[in-house]
Design a protein that fits this description.
heterodimer; A: mainly alpha; 2 domains; 8 helices; 0% strand; B: mainly alpha; flat
């Protein structure tokens, strides 16, 4: 039984209920409750994407070389930060991948932070959204590795440097590689969910200052977790794309 | 009395204070439809995971602080390694939390 926490979800279900059921029907799925096909996290994700597109549209109209405004400074900071980290990790090909890293970082940051506004829910508090982002990162670094080194050579690196240890190395490497999206998704989900639960626990005890302190901690944890997700994706891409020595 | 035996008897007295817990046994099993020890195990598991995570993070921060003290010029590199290491150690304790949420109704 899903309890609606967001007024936006109620609006979506009222206006777009039929569209939601049709979209689910296209994949052969049925909603648990046909009157409410839109889940909280779906609506919040769409809201985050729409807000980000609006933000970047406004930014685009205010870009200027001679007199950069405040927004341009802020986004140049973010871009230089991510591009600098990517250069440090991936090396000389970093500019090809910076787009994906920056998209992941800004999307995850916005998703994590939107939960702090009363009336909105973080999409990353439901396991499905971090798993989706982790699967995208997983597919991305594998496909980039295969594009850079060729499918055969990329798969051959699972065998390790010494050829006669391959029967031992291959299962270990495969499990290690499969553990990457698992750890990425669980780390992000657990941090966000635990942050909300801890705030709820303290809110049930007192309305005064203490829950606000935990929400402040949640801001810091949101930033850190979005950064860690992006950084680990960079490290995995670097590992997949590096030339063999 | 020596210090150790004082400490021992104090701990024993505190444990006897927890005796009312046994009165709750059968009710808990009937309500959960399963083992009554699942919530207790969950509490112990989370406590052990958090304690070990705290020890590991303490070692990480100690190493980082000493590194910065020895070589203040390397501060950016050490800060990066510190934040990265802390986040990965934190995630190990959070895996236990996820298991608790999955297994404890």
């Amino acid at each position: 039984m899903v309890t609606h926490e967001a007024f936006l979800t109620k609006l979506f279900n009222a206006w777009f209920g039929g569209l939601g059921n049709q979209l689910l029907g296209m994949f052969g799925l049925k909603a648990d409750n046909p009157a409410e096909p839109w889940a909280d996290f779906m609506v919040m994700q769409i809201l985050v994407v729409v807000l980000l597109i609006l933000l970047f549209a406004i930014l685009r109209s205010r870009l200027s070389v001679d007199k950069p405004g405040t927004m341009q400074h802020i986004f140049e900071l973010i871009h230089n930060f991510i591009a600098g980290e990517a250069e440090g990790q991936v090396g000389h090909d970093a500019h090809k991948h910076t787009l994906m890293f920056e998209a992941l970082f800004i999307f995850l940051l916005a998703c994590n932070l939107i939960g702090l506004i009363p009336g909105f829910v973080s999409p990353t508090q439901v396991i499905y959204v971090p798993v989706g982002c982790a699967l995208i990162a997983f597919l991305y670094f594998n496909i980039e590795g295969m594009k850079k080194q060729g499918v055969g050579k990329y798969l051959a690196h699972f065998a390790g440097p010494i050829w006669w240890m391959a029967p031992l190395m291959i299962p270990i490497e495969i499990i290690g590689t499969l553990a990457r999206p698992l750890s990425l998704s669980v780390r992000l989900f657990a941090n966000m969910y635990a942050g909300e639960q801890v705030t709820m626990v303290f809110l049930s005890m007192t309305y005064l200052v203490i829950p606000a302190m935990f929400m402040g901690l949640h801001v810091f944890v949101s930033l850190l977790q979005a950064y860690i997700f992006t950084l680990l994706t960079m490290i995995y891409v670097a590992g997949a794309v590096e030339e063999a020595h | 009395m020596t210090k150790i035996s004082k400490f021992f008897f104090m701990a024993l007295a505190l444990m006897f204070l927890a005796a009312p817990m046994f009165a709750q046994g059968p009710g808990g099993a009937a309500a959960a439809g399963g083992n009554v020890w699942v919530p207790v195990t969950a509490g112990f598991a989370m406590a052990i995971a958090s304690g070990l995570c705290a020890l590991a993070q303490g070692k990480a921060v100690a190493g980082a602080a000493e590194g910065i003290a020895r070589n203040p010029g390397a501060f950016p590199a050490i800060r990066f390694a510190l934040i990265f290491g802390l986040a990965l150690i934190e995630s190990l304790a959070l895996y236990v939390l996820v298991i608790i949420f999955v297994k404890v109704v």
